[in-house]
Amino acid sequence: MRHIISILVNNQPRVLARVASLFGRRNFNIESISVGESEEPGLSRIVIVTHGDARTMEQVSKHLHKLIDVIKVQDLSIQQSVARELLLVKVGATASNRAEIQGIIEPFRASVVDVGINSLMIQATGDREKLDALIELLRPYGIKELARTGITALPRSMQIQPKAHMHA
Amino acid sequence: MTTDQKHTSADGELTGSEILLRCLIEEKVEFIFGYPGGAVLPIYDSLYYGSIKHILYRHEQGAIHAADGYARATGKPGVVIATSGPGATNLVTGIATAQMDSIPLVCITGNVPQNLIGTDAFQEADITGITMPITKHSYLVQDVRDLPRVVKEAFHIASTGRPGPVLIDIPKDVSNAKAPFSYPETVFIRGYQPTTNPHPLQIEKLHQAIAESKRPLILAGGGVVTSGADQELIAFAERAKIPVTTTLMGIGGFPGTHPLWLGMPGMHGTVAANRALLECDLLIGIGARFDDRVTMGRIDKFATSAKIVHIDIDPAEIGKNVDTYIPIVGDVKRVLEVALQDLPVSQSEAWLQNLKDLKQQYPLTFKQSDNTLKPQWVIQHLYETTGGDAIVTTDVGQHQMWVAQYFHFSRPRSFISSGGLGTMGFGFPAAIGAQLAYPDRTVISVTGDGGFQMTAQELAVVALANIPVKVAIINNQCLGMVRQWQEVFYQRRYSEVDLSGSPDFVKLAEAYGVKGMRACTQEEARQAWREALDHPGPVVIDFQVDPEENVYPMVAPGAGLDEMMLGDEKP
């Protein structure tokens, strides 16, 4: 099962390296990782998407807690949460098909953020499946460059059927 | 910088290196194990006037194993100092050794000045990065004003919860920079709050499981020794009538002469201990991590009919290797104290009788010989002449297993051995650390002819300071355990295990000014050992033993505990 793990850490040098190396050393896989400031000065939030059964996730959580700089670990995939990533994609575009591309990206609420002579840069946010779908629709036009940020996520405020935290 | 400048600074400020030394004094550090170099020159300059005893080893690996031996013998953190680059990287094996066995160490390394960090400067190594997977925590000090807090936190982290090595990397400019000194009285680390008290509900469940059990067993590990819970363990086992097997790291945590003791379990465990693991209906793991040398990695064959209780201070150990029926997170001593209240008695009469019979039926034995010296006999002789009170250190391999099997330790912190990492070259320097901590106790470094050659240069240290460590080399002229595996699993293809070309260990000892002796027969061995015990200084004895001897019982890797090889040993 796919899990989104949110880790609140001290904003110290090497903390990201400690977390990432822990995953590598214990043979846990990282599908995506994103990190940035949190609501509290001095603390950062790392969001890691990983795969594993309940036993593996328990181990992931326990070993993360052993790191001195880790304050809190939550599994956002076992509670209601909002998970988003940012996509930037540069596709081939000619004067004749620009309007067509515009029509494709519009339902995705994506936007054109840069225009070149033979290309368009498109920005989109959403969950992974939505961005995957958008990429597939744009593929026929020729994808020149593509970058995704990896998932970042927060739990929803209103939990309709609240489930327990992993090890809060 | 002159002395006067250093000690009469008008602004009352101290340099980073002086602050470090003041911090170590505040932490009541007795010994610093170390080796100087360019990046730690300011620290060594401060040491010159200091009151802490510094022991100069001949290799950083010797220094850190000695600090480790000191820590294992006393329970207090060992302190090691090394310089940047090669000095720091020479600590790596020692740090990993301490990490695997949960030993409190504070490892201080110098580094190049901060303006050179990351430039591949002379003697620069990213030691914080290199040691990240093998430390409990690490610090790179970037501001001299952080130093007191960092040292305070480092000692706290190293010695509390599940202990472990903490690294403090100090760039040279930080050692030279000045700041006012004040040592913090308390530590608060938001992300580090170890649980020491057990959950009462889990203790209730444990009590219930004991009351219901007919075939209970305690698997006691290094956590019993670390938390100083040996007396509580004895009381617990006796009152609940539960037999005890101690893992390699748990040896000494329960007296080796106690009627409830079954010996060591696992790969080279006793028949009684392994049968007990196979047949128990309740298995109480106490500060033991269910390592693959105990379970053989065959969880499907391990304690299959037992409810497993796991008591450990590290929550990450619980459920890591075996599924746990009752998890209890807490300090082992504290957990046992709580569990001892209203402790029920198990219904184990028949079980205890059964195990007692097994112990008698399958004792540890070896074939005696008239013309060769048997390694097991040597260990037995060391035991019989010193009792269970001596401190014995080992490396890894056959000699280590024979000490574990034939030396019945009666108290904790007496068997000092590299369990988790299995480090060759560990035992001799560790014995130096233990002997410094306990100058009046008999400290024996039982080592192999292979392992001894990895750190033999520390003979200089015992010679110079007249540290009376007794080195007993179990010399079979080969890498014994590797040879045993090649014999059993590789059809006697002895690939690169012949240690011919080793020095004459007697002459080697004498070259350092240490008393050296050789023994090839039982009579010579008795005589040499008697002389060694009477000699007030360090001694090396080269016990030339039967090179063909194997460690039995043995369970092959990948086999279950029900598939023990007993050898054809008869007393």
Describe the structure.
The complex is a heterodimer of chains A (168) and B (571). Chain A has helices at residues 15-25, 54-66, 98-105, 128-138, and strands spanning 2-10, 32-37, 43-51, 70-75, 81-92, 111-115, 119-126, 143-148, 152-155. Chain A has 168 residues and is of the alpha+beta class. In chain A, the strands form 2 sheets. In chain A, strands 5, 6, 7, 8 and 9 form a 5-stranded antiparallel sheet that branches. In chain A, strands 2-3-1-4 form a 4-stranded antiparallel sheet, with helices on one face. In chain A, a hairpin with a 5-residue loop joins strand 2 and strand 3. With 571 residues, chain B is an alpha/beta fold. Chain B is 37% helix and 16% strand. In chain B, strand 2 (31-34), helix 3 (41-47) and strand 3 form a beta-alpha-beta unit. In chain B, helix 4 (60-74) runs parallel beside helix 6. The termini of chain B are far apart. Chain A binds chain B through residues 9-10, 13-14, 17-18, 21-22, 25, 55, 58-59, 62-63, 65-71, and chain B through 128-129, 132-133, 136-137, 140, 157, 189-192, 314-316, 318-320.
Silhouette of chain B:
globular
Mean pLDDT of chain B: 96
Query: What is the architecture of the largest domain in chain A at the second tier of CATH?
Result: 2-Layer Sandwich
**Secondary structure: number of strands of chain B:** 21
Helicity of chain A, as a percent range: 25-40%
Total count of helical runs of at least 4 residues of chain B: 24
- Number of contiguous helices of chain A: 4
